[in-house]
Design brief:
Layout lengths: L1 H31 L5 H26 L6 H20 L3 H20 L4
Helix pairs in contact: 1-2, 1-4, 2-3, 3-4
Amino acid sequence: MEFARRSAHHLLRIESALLILLALYLAISAVTKGVTAPGAFAGEIIFSLTAAIGLYFCSQGFKKRAAFGRAPALLANLIALGVAYFMISGKLIWVGVLLGLLAFATALSALLGYTE
């Protein structure tokens, strides 16, 4: 259980960092390329940053051995598994597989990383 808790803490931090990098990439590409729907693009950036902050706080819950991070972390990663499925079906196979593996490992760690 201790290994799963520590793994969940670190994997959630990695996911949070990846979402911040995604938001930076989107912000830079908005400046360098023409954006046809700026409202939707801004929404994606805000959603990525909000999710990154949420996953970071979930990782804090695992670090403090508290229960408040378990359910949101598990839910976020189950959603990411669905996103990975649609990426694979949309011919982004390697991105979808990597996202699926990360989401599965994090969801499993979050599920097993907390005892009452």
